[in-house]
Specification:
Shape: elongated
Number of strands: 2
Largest sheet: 2 strands, antiparallel
Radius of gyration: 33 Å
Strand order of the largest sheet: 1-2
Number of helices: 33
Helix content: over 70%
Strand content: under 5%
């Protein structure tokens, strides 16, 4: 009986059907794995579905909204020169602006797409890692598809990623991560495959191209050659580590390091290590040493946020450390040193956990080491390093639960994923608009002047002048030398009609920082309002000396020159403003008014028409062009322009009045009376409208009291 059973088993082993069945089982598992990845991706779409209407925030304005250099896709020199270290990520912003202008949904769609691609790359790279020779005897290998899905699930849903995904300009971080992960995955695939040479060449070439794209997306991609070295050491070397200089792979790695050094020396100088102003403390210098000491605590904070992502904050009020032997700094250093010792200890015992720790520190090293950055902490810096953390967590799950308690493990990660997803969805609500974001920040960083000032800026954009003034004042109590708060409070005083207070704030601001152009320009505008033309010209000129490409200063100085009859200077200045900012309708309107004043009517009409082409609701352009047409006797065009102005603003009394005059010229007295009456309904004290209406009534032979 025993021999017969052995024979059956042998036949079963070599039965073609059993091979076919195994193939079907593999296909079924692959299908299940693909379905799992699709579910993870759908989850990512759901939890970020409320981000598509979130407004521009903080650096988005400098990089996108107010950045004229990216607003013309054909001006390669301008947008490339804006950030020559990051042309790849900047180009995507150029494309977004080209197709979406300032409609935020398009930018968020791209950001989410990049995040979902990164999720797929995390899944793929995790599979490759668990397929490596060094882990072939690990009990985790048989669960590698589950572990890859868990790692991807954590990556896509973790709330800490919201600052990278929902904060539009931080696509620079996610794009660098995308090409970084792709480069490493392609390299790993090449090293783990036995395919033909042409396939290897394609994989290695793709890896090199991805590395270059990563490097020109954001500077933290410079650590990629070291990440490849980590992969080699941890997952491909099963014997004692040695270097064979005859191995083409070693030569490729050496070449990559040499290229990296050449690019680094070409693109950067040792100025990146120079001391900078400490955040919130301009009297202190943030040196490489101080920055490093601070980063010990920052990195511990990042780890805490990865474990417990609560009280997330766009603008932390994080103290700078100036001494090593303090409880916070020394304690943080000991925690980090312990982690590194643990990583070394676990190298042979639990290599995947050791790798995760080294990955975390390596990918943080550019932004959390000795290169001073004015903002010592930002959540988006954890985006790429978080992969190391997530692969540790998924591996620990495999070690502790998957072999004996698989159902329990799945339940645990389902609960965690649901919790993370809810937290991410809720966190996105804080990004809805500037007020919600800065309210959130001020609540969490109540002693940070920049946070309070930035909320004041948001109120200022909404023309809530008193709220803005109060916030600027609070910020200045914390930091009396905060120049931007002084300048913006001056702007609120201007809009409240308190010109003396505005001038006082601007004067104080230029006293603190004589090179801050906005203070000079804004004070010049107050002098302009007060018709103190010489003082206005002087302040605008000072702003232009600080920034020779300050288009608004040229525009305002040109307008001031126009008011004192210096027509040539006025036209020259406004023409420069137009050259610097060709999409600004107001510049064309102002130059058109100069041409109108010197009776160059054709040029005036051309400028007003250009302004209308740029802004279909350019009220002043229609009104002024209508007046020029009136002087030229082209009354039909005059009526068309005044009617367009009224359609834009039905309470524009001057347009009604001027159209009434035009109807008078055409002898259409009833329509003239109707327009004068409309103007009087808007402003009952509009005396000249009464006078004209009275004349119109008389022309019609109607002696009706003109004030009825």
């Amino acid at each position: 009986m025993k021999k017969e059973q052995q024979k059956k088993n042998l036949l079963k082993k070599h039965n073609p059907k059993s091979g076919s069945q195994a193939k079907n089982d593999k296909s079924r598992k692959d299908y299940t794995n693909l379905v799992g990845l699709i579910i993870v991706m759908l989850l990512g779409i759901i939890i970020y579905s409320n981000s598509f209407n979130c407004s521009f925030q903080l650096d988005d304005f400098r990089n996108i909204v107010n950045n004229n250099k990216i607003h013309d896709i054909s001006n390669v020199k301008a947008w490339y020169g804006f950030s020559p270290n990051r042309p790849v990520s900047v180009f995507t912003l150029v494309l977004n602006y080209h197709f979406n202008k300032l409609e935020v949904w398009g930018y968020h769609l791209v950001n989410l797409f990049i995040h979902l691609v990164n999720t797929c790359l995390v899944w793929w790279l995790t599979l490759l890692i668990f397929s490596s020779p060094a882990l072939k005897d690990s009990s985790l290998v048989r669960h590698k598809k589950v572990l890859a899905l868990i790692t991807a699930l954590l990556f896509v849903s973790h709330p800490l990623a919201t600052q990278t995904v929902t904060y539009i300009v931080q696509r620079m971080a996610s794009m660098a991560a995308m090409f970084y992960l792709l480069s490493l995955a392609l390299y790993a695939k090449a090293r783990l495959t036995d395919k033909r040479m042409i396939s290897l060449i394609l994989l290695y070439s793709g890896s090199v191209i991805s590395f270059l794209l990563a490097m020109f997306s954001k500077e933290n991609a410079f650590t990629l050659p070291f990440a490849i070295l980590l992969f080699e050491i941890f997952f491909l070397r099963t014997k004692k580590f040695s270097v064979n200089f005859k191995d083409y792979r070693v030569i490729l790695l050496i070449a990559a390091f040499l290229c990296l050094m050449i690019i680094f020396l070409f693109k950067f100088s040792f100025n990146i290590f120079r001391p900078i102003t400490a955040p919130g403390h301009p009297e202190y210098a943030l040196t490489p040493l101080n920055y490093l000491l601070t980063q010990f605590s920052v990195i511990v904070k990042y780890i805490q946020l990865l474990f417990f992502p609560v009280n997330l904050n766009l603008d932390y009020d994080f103290p700078v450390s100036y001494k090593f032997f303090t409880i916070t700094t020394l304690g943080s250093f000991l925690i980090l040193a312990s982690l590194i010792v643990l990583a070394v200890y676990l190298f042979n015992k639990q290599r995947i956990i050791s790798f995760g720790i080294f990955w975390f520190f390596l990918t943080l090293s550019v932004e959390s080491s000795i290169i001073p950055i004015s903002d010592v902490i930002f959540e988006h810096r954890t985006y790429l390093p978080s992969f190391g953390f997530f692969i540790i967590l998924s591996s620990l799950t495999g070690i502790l639960y998957l072999n004996k308690h698989k159902t329990l493990a799945i339940c645990i990660w389902t609960i965690i994923a649901v919790s993370y997803s809810i937290m991410t969805y809720e966190r996105n609500k804080a990004w809805r608009d500037e007020i919600t974001m800065w309210n959130d920040i001020v609540e969490k960083s109540p002693g940070k002047a920049r946070a309070i000032m930035s909320r004041g800026n948001a109120y200022m954009k909404l023309e809530q002048w008193n709220n803005a003034k109060d916030d600027f004042t609070k910020a200045l109590i914390i930091d009396p030398k905060l120049v931007l708060a002084l300048t913006n409070r001056g702007y609120t005083y201007r809009n409240l009609g308190q010109y003396d207070k505005a001038i006082a704030d601007y004067t104080m601001a230029v006293g603190i920082d004589p090179d801050y152009k906005l203070s000079w320009s804004n004070r010049g505008y107050i002098y302009y309002i007060r018709k103190q033309w010489d003082k206005a010209v002087e302040d605008f000129s000072r702003a232009i000396r600080i920034d020779p490409e300050f288009s608004d200063a040229y525009l305002n100085r040109g307008s001031a020159y126009g008011n004192i009859g210096a027509w040539d200077k006025a036209i020259d200045d406004i023409s420069i403003a137009i050259k610097l900012r060709p999409d600004h309708a107001k510049s064309y309107i102002n130059r058109g008014s100069i041409y109108w004043g010197i009776k160059q009517y054709d040029k005036a009409i051309a400028d007003y028409t250009m302004a209308i082409g740029l802004d279909q609701k350019a009220l002043d352009a229609y009104s002024c062009r209508g007046a020029v047409y009136s002087e030229l006797g082209q009354l039909d065009k005059t009526l068309t322009d005044y009617s367009a102005a009224i359609a834009i603003n039905p309470r524009f009394k001057d347009a009604y009045f001027n159209r009434g005059i035009t109807y008078e010229k055409l002898g259409k007295w009833d329509k003239a009376i109707a327009d004068y009456t409309s103007a009087l309904k808007i402003d009952p004290n509009y005396s000249v409208a009464y006078e004209n209406r009275e004349k119109a009534y008389k022309k019609m032979g109607n002696n009706k009291n003109n004030r009825q």
